[in-house]
Amino acid sequence: MVKLNHVLRAEQFLDTNCQEAIFQEALRLKKISSTENGALSLRKELEGKNITLFFGEPSSRTRGSFETAGKKLGANTVLIEGAFYGKIENPLTIALIAAELLTDVLVMRHPKAGLVEEVAQILDEFAPNISVINAGDNAREHPTQMLLDVLTIREVKQKTLKQGKLTVGLVGDLKDSRVFHSDAIGLSPWGVRFVLISPGGENLPDYVLEILERNKNPLKKTNDIREFASEIDVWIFTRFQRERKGEGDLSEQRKAYIDAFSLTPELRKLIKRRAIVLHPLPRLEEMPYSFDSDPRALYFSRQIKNGIYVRMAILEMLCS
Ligand code: NCD
Fold it and tell me: Which atom of ligand 1 is nearest to the CA of 178?
């Protein structure tokens, strides 16, 4: 098993062997969980371990996924959320609380950029046995969402992914979606070709583009969602990240986003029959409910479940 102290950025997974080891373990756990005896036996794996879920920003899927993952492995989980907003933003305070709660793994989401990493650095000084997982750092990164997205792609498109022949379209808020930032980094070493589809002028942050450049990923950029539809094997959509864009009325901008970057009936006819469509959720109007039953839609049928198993694999890795 790979050995990591913390999971803070997608860049920690630039080695595809490291990703592959996590995927193998996640798939093993998925298989074991499918039988009653198997599921029972897993409950001993992290017996006595304490996972603290520290959520300073709303979360339903990621929080629920980590909690389920921890419980399936027999760990205790404690949730701290919302209430600390504005009261204990200080990273030292958060680190001290984690230590007092006898935490083994601290899963953190926070709106303040870089705070999760600061907490990890402080813990390295005085409680190095506590691992930190970044479950959403401002608009920057969301590395475990990347792992579950790549696992989902690998499950369905293994051959093309491993041959470096996959074309991935990232649709929408390239600037402020932490999921896109981490996904682009995590997919980069597999040699994928990217199609970046976003409002004119908007792009991935420079540090992400530099990684893509270093790995020589072919890159196309457009603001017309239809332009490269016939080439894209994997579509990843996201909502307009309203909370990252400051004060003021942005309803026009939001409407323009929905008009340009949604899975419309017209697009549905253009995307390949064997393409797959991912979405980290929550969704707004960009992903219509009518698409949920399309066999290409994997956001309910695979992503949520894979999130649990990938997080189980990560929790095991950090506790071993
Ligand atoms: C994403 C997030 O929080 O960044 N959701 C998630 O973790 N499943 C995407 C989003 O909020 O749009």
Answer: 4
pTM exceeding 0.90: yes
Q: Does 122 share its domain with 169?
A: no
User: Which two structure tokens, joined as six digits, stand for 82?
Assistant: 């919302």
| Cα distance between residue 120 and residue 122, in whole Å | 5
User: Tokens 């649709």 correspond to what residue?
Assistant: 171
Q: Which residues pair with 172 in a beta bridge?
A: none
**Once rounded to an integer, what is the mean pLDDT over residues 197-202?**
92
Express each pLDDT in 18-41 by its tens digit. 999 999 999 999 999 999 999 999
Does 159 have pLDDT greater than 90? yes
Query: 45: domain range?
Result: 10-141+307-319
Q: Is the same domain home to 163 and 101? A: no
Structure tokens at 68: 């389920």
For residue 96, give every residue at least 6 positions away whose Cβ sits within 8 Å of its Cβ, in sequence order, or none.
Answer: none
For tokens 């009325």, the residue is 249
User: Cα(185)–Cα(13) distance, rounded to whole angstroms?
Assistant: 8
Q: How many domains does the chain have?
A: 2
Cα 272 to ligand 1 centroid, rounded to whole Å: 26
The residue contributing the CA closest to ligand 1 atom 3 is 136
Q: Which two tokens stand for residue 202?
A: 């908007």
Does 152 share its domain with 246?
A: yes
